[in-house]
């Protein structure tokens, strides 16, 4: 067993237990245990369970993102301070001041990636589980909680004619006849996976970032993530089993919906989403976000009832006659 397998072993057992539990549940309520849709629902509910458990982490991610946006003016001042200074001492001093700045705001650039980093072991564990069905059948052994019968059932199950254990690349490189259904389903799932990831990141940049953040160095990191991550997963998707593509697409759709809800209901102060929220609240007669109705009413009354001070014209003094 290599080092990666040793790390992923507990995650493989967790993933296999959850898949088995949901498969048993859907079988109990009358679904065909060998149907690809039963296994697909099991994978989707695996996503729902993991993402629900990660909601506290997502809340921390939102707070970290807002802290990163709040310190953008300070980062720009820091960059201006060390502009043109390429010597080692200056670079070390700038890095030290950046770290102190991140510590002060209790955040760091990696905080926004925390949910994805936590999900990755489950993703790779599911990949190992679904990608090793053929080996398990050859060895006549189960995978974690999944018995050999479960493995046979999953390996033979399909949706729209594409088996959940097959991959785009494996189908193209197979010696036998090419299953066009696998190619079509894989391409559709890869496009859905990459598009949902791109839209989620684009939504943050266009709606939930302040003007200072859009002009700051943090924006470069966001632009890289906007284009690089969908590209990486899109290229890697040709080697993902259909079941893994379902998992990752369902994860991205959850993230997109969750992000849309947060941006609409609790946007970053100073962002375009906050202005839109305040416009909607104003149309309903509600105060701006973060302001109590009593305070807004008191401020409005103070403006209306403020007494008008009449300007006193200076009196003309009679000049003495010479």
UniProtKB/TrEMBL annotation:
Predominantly, its location class is membrane
Q: Which GO terms describe its cellular component?
A: plasma membrane
Where found, per UniProt? Answer: Cell membrane; Membrane
According to the UniProt entry, the coiled-coil residues are none
User: Membrane insertase YidC/Oxa/ALB C-terminal domain: which residues?
Assistant: 39-263
Its domain of life reads: Bacteria
What's an example Gene Ontology biological process for this entry?
Answer: protein transport
- The reply on keyword Protein transport is yes
Membrane-topology annotation of the record: Multi-pass membrane protein
List residues traversing the bilayer: 12-31, 37-59, 178-199, 224-248
GO MF annotations in UniProt: membrane insertase activity
Provide this UniProt record's keywords sorted from A to Z: Cell membrane, Chaperone, Membrane, Protein transport, Transmembrane, Transmembrane helix, Transport
Q: Which InterPro entries match?
A: YidC/ALB3/OXA1/COX18, YidC/Oxa/ALB_C, YidC_ALB_C
* Subunit structure and binding partners: Interacts with the Sec translocase complex via SecD. Specifically interacts with transmembrane segments of nascent integral membrane proteins during membrane integration.
Say what the protein does: Required for the insertion and/or proper folding and/or complex formation of integral membrane proteins into the membrane. Involved in integration of membrane proteins that insert both dependently and independently of the Sec translocase complex, as well as at least some lipoproteins. Aids folding of multispanning membrane proteins.
Q: Tell me its family.
A: Belongs to the OXA1/ALB3/YidC family. Type 1 subfamily.
In its UniProt entry, what is this protein called?
A: Membrane protein insertase YidC
């Amino acid at each position: 067993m290599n080092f990666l397998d040793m790390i992923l072993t507990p995650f493989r057992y967790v993933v296999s237990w959850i898949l088995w539990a949901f498969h048993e549940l859907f079988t109990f309520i009358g679904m065909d245990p060998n149907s690809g849709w039963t296994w697909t629902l099991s994978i989707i509910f695996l996503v729902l369970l993991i993402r629900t458990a990660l909601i506290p982490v997502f809340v921390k991610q939102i707070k970290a993102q807002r802290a990163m946006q709040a310190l953008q003016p300070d980062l720009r001042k820091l960059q201006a301070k060390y502009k043109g200074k390429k010597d080692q001492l200056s670079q070390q001093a700038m890095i030290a001041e950046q770290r102190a700045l991140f510590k002060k705001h209790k955040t760091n650039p990696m905080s926004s990636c925390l949910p994805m980093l936590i999900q990755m072991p489950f993703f790779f564990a599911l990949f190992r589980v679904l990608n090793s069905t053929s080996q398990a059948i050859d060895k006549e052994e189960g995978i974690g909680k999944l018995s050999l019968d479960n493995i046979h059932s999953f390996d033979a199950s399909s949706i729209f004619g594409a088996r959940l254990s097959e991959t785009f690349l494996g189908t193209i490189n197979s010696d036998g006849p090419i299953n066009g259904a696998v190619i079509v389903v894989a391409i559709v799932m890869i496009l859905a996976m990459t598009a949902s990831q791109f839209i989620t990141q684009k939504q943050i940049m266009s709606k939930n970032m302040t003007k200072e953040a859009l002009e700051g160095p943090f924006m470069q990191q966001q632009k890289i993530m906007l284009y690089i991550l969908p590209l990486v997963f899109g290229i890697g998707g040709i080697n993902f089993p259909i079941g893994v593509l379902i998992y990752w697409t369902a994860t991205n759709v959850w993230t997109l919906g969750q992000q849309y809800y947060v941006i609409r209901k609790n946007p970053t102060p100073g962002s375009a989403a906050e202005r839109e929220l305040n416009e909607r609240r104003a149309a309903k007669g509600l105060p701006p976000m973060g302001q109590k109705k009593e305070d807004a009413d008191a401020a409005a009354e103070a403006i209306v009832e403020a007494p008008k001070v009449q300007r006193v014209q200076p009196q003309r003094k009679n000049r003495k006659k010479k």
